[in-house]
Amino acid sequence: MWSTHVAYLLALPLSSASAVNALQPKDYEPSLYQEGSCQQACETFASEYPGRLHYEDADTNFTIWDQKQLQTVYVCRVEPASASEVSKVVQVLVDNWCRFAVKCGGHSRYPDDSVSVGGVTIDLGLINGTVVSDDRTTARIGGGALTRQVFAALDPYGLGYVGGRVGQVGMGGFTLGGGTSVLSAKYGWALDSVLEYEVIVLPNATIATVSENQHPDLYYALRGGGNNFGIVTSFNVTVFPQGLVYAGSRTFGDDQTDRFLEEAEKIFTLEDAEDTNVVLEYRYAYSAAQDRYTMSSTQRYAEPVSNPPAFDAMNAIPALSNLSGGITSLAASTSFSGPLGQTRNIFASVAHYPSVELGKQAIRIFKDNVRSLGNMTGVNPELITYSIPAAAIENMKARGGNALGIDVKGHLVINLLSVSWANSTSDDAAYSFADHFIGDFRQAAESLGVLHPFIYINYANKGQDVFSGYGEENKQKLIAIQKDIDPRGVFTSSGLWRGFFKVR
Ligand SMILES: Cc1cc2nc3c(=O)[nH]c(=O)nc-3n(C[C@H](O)[C@H](O)[C@H](O)COP(=O)(O)OP(=O)(O)OC[C@H]3O[C@@H](n4cnc5c(N)ncnc54)[C@H](O)[C@@H]3O)c2cc1C
Ligand SMILES: *[C@@H]1O[C@H](CO)[C@@H](O)[C@H](O)[C@H]1NC(C)=O
Ligand SMILES: *[C@@H]1O[C@H](CO)[C@@H](O)[C@H](O)[C@H]1NC(C)=O
Ligand SMILES: *[C@@H]1O[C@H](CO)[C@@H](O)[C@H](O)[C@H]1NC(C)=O
Ligand SMILES: *[C@@H]1O[C@H](CO)[C@@H](O)[C@H](O)[C@H]1NC(C)=O
Ligand SMILES: *[C@@H]1O[C@H](CO)[C@@H](O)[C@H](O)[C@H]1NC(C)=O
Ligand SMILES: *[C@@H]1O[C@H](CO)[C@@H](O)[C@H](O)[C@H]1NC(C)=O
Ligand SMILES: *[C@@H]1O[C@H](CO)[C@@H](O)[C@H](O)[C@H]1NC(C)=O
User: Highest taxon of the source (predicted)?
Assistant: First the structure.
């Protein structure tokens, strides 16, 4: 899909920028003059932001997690360093009617999600500071910051925030979509820890401060609405004292999965009721190289307690490996930044009410799909599962509530199907695997009466209907707020900022 688009753009001669400017947006025909209009915008940026404007063919230092996005051909990439520069950049792009994408940590998976297909990539990477308030209860975090930068900045104060598990993931996408953390049983999801957003909004690309009391509609919409409402240049979030934590891992053979799933569900219940320091994630993976299935657990505790007893029953199950792990800081555990751009990836997601039976069926469905696709050499699928803890769900009602539409007693179970591979020749096999697996999984959940409609935007596959999963009322509310602040549809699927998931 993207490769045809890119090939087309490469063959396209540059059209005159002035002819482009004379056209009104309603006459806009993207394929005819898109690159010409962006050329003009890029020239403006080149003179305004010397050293921070990179044309694609000379942008050799640019890298990003997903290889498909790395191979995406844009016209230029600009690195604004402040909110007022982001505001000016957006003004220039709208004036030239040039398409764009916005990049923070760059951990999304499709071209145009955060690297523009044939337009301008706005790279927020220089807006990465963290400032702690005098009373040490809040911090202002730049809209382009990475998880590891934030943990590293808070660590000297002995503070933590609701951050992600992987250091290279961005504050921006993570927090706008939801943000599940190893601290979520205690402090909720990241989107509910945001007190204030500084955000570039339309129609005039002005800088707005959005909170429970200022623009409450937009405040609701930014908590789950993704990239539909504006470019966030800073997040003001709650922070809290945080010391060292425990993380351990242990892998089990395929013959132990039934027993494992029974113990895992008991631990999810424990996270809710008895001890919010407890966190469990597990992943069921197929290794194409070894033609083998394994179940791995990550066992966590939000205090420096080695081998917490909450995991004893799970660890009594015969395992393939000894328990390995230890005590570390969240800053240290997220500091690694590995090589980027090596793998092609897709995610897809299903949420459901607790059901060990469905967990068992999901494994059978996973294997059936691996088998029915035959020899998928090099395609590595894994199903990652954890809980949306009861306390995190309760916290979603705070400050007027968020847009996600999750309102249940107790916990839900969230599943991320992650498929990675290295060669574009396997693209079709990987997409097909994901579609079939998710279709079968949802059907099994429906049959058991345990499907929850929520589809986590940060784990969703292209084509999954994220906003319908928030519930009809939330979806319509998001659409109405979007129309109200962006009547021309600049940030919509027919406007300039088209990638990722759009409410309209
Ligand atoms: C290795 C890995 C580990 C992960 N771990 C977790 C985890 O522990 N918990 C979890 O909840 N999720 C996790 N995720 C999912 C992650 O939250 C999403 O992929 C998220 O969208 C990534 O955000 P980003 O800023 O890195 O990506 P980007 O691709 O830069 O951004 C994603 C989308 O958000 C938009 N966006 C980004 N910043 C802004 C901004 N400041 N203003 C407006 N729009 C913006 C972009 O335009 C883009 O459309 C993980 C993903 C990966 C690949
Ligand atoms: C790439 O980064 C290096 C190190 O920061 C810098 O010296 C070099 O000029 C950069 N190259 C380009 C093309 O921007
Ligand atoms: C975050 O917002 C609160 C409430 O408006 C404010 O009191 C606090 O100073 C802000 N924090 C920072 C670091 O700016
Ligand atoms: C912000 O980004 C710049 C440029 O990549 C980097 O030099 C700096 O260390 C980063 N700041 C923080 C706090 O990580
Ligand atoms: C904002 O844009 C609208 C529509 O383009 C225009 O009518 C209005 O005057 C602008 N407001 C400011 C403060 O520039
Ligand atoms: C587990 O630890 C024991 C004792 O140190 C060791 O003998 C054994 O080989 C280990 N098993 C595995 C699977 O690593
Ligand atoms: C898959 O193909 C590879 C390479 O062609 C081969 O080595 C392997 O045995 C095959 N696996 C299966 C399960 O057929
Ligand atoms: C991808 O696979 C094709 C077909 O098997 C092969 O010709 C090509 O060399 C591979 N590319 C890479 C980068 O491995």
Answer: Eukaryota
Cα of 375 vs centre of ligand 7, distance in Å, is 6
Residue 184 CB–ligand 1 contact under 6 Å: no
Q: What is each CA distance from 208 to 90, 170, 311, 378, 422, in whole angstroms?
A: 14, 21, 46, 47, 42
Ligand 3 centroid distance, CA of 212 (Å): 13
| Cα 123 from Cα 476, distance rounded (Å) | 30
Residue 61 CA, ligand 2 centroid: distance in Å: 6
All structural domains of the chain: 33-124 (3.30.43.10), 130-241 (3.30.465.10), 245-469 (3.40.462.20)
- CB distance 89 to 46 below 8 Å: no
Residue nearest to atom 14 of ligand 4 (CA): 149
Which region holds residue 325: left if phi is over 0, alpha if psi is between -120 and 50, else beta?
A: left
Residue 367 has pLDDT above 70, yes or no: yes
Sign of the alpha-carbon dihedral angle for 24, 29, 30, 35: negative
Candidates 296, 307, 322, 324: which one to mutate for ligand 6, based on the most atoms within 8 Å of Cβ? 322
Which helix H or strand E contains 317, and what residues bound it? none
- Ranges 64-68, 135-139, 374-378: which has the least confidence: 374-378
Q: Over the Cα atoms of the chain, what is R_g? A: 23
For residues 368 and 462, give the distance between their C-alpha atoms in angstroms, rounded to a whole number.
23
Q: Which ligand is nearest to the CA of 53?
A: 2
**Which strands sit side by side in the sheet containing 231-238, from one edge to the other?**
130-132, 138-142, 231-238, 194-201, 206-211
- pTM over cut 0.90: yes
Q: Quick one: which atom of ligand 3 is closest to the CA of 135?
A: 9
pLDDT(5) > 80: no
Which atom of ligand 3 sits closest to the CA of residue 140? Answer: 13
pLDDT (tens digit, 9 = 90+) per residue, 323-340?
A: 999 999 999 999 999 899
Which residue's CA lies nearest to atom 14 of ligand 8?
Answer: 423
Sign of the alpha-carbon torsion through 106, 112, 118, 121: negative
Name every protein residue with a CB atom under 6 angstroms from any ligand 3 atom.
131, 133, 138-140, 195-196, 236
**Nearest Cα to 482, choosing from 226, 232, 236?**
226
Write out 8-36 in H/E/C secondary structure. HHHHCCCCCHHHHHHCCHHHCCHHHHHHH
Rounded Cα distance, 249 and 277, in Å: 16
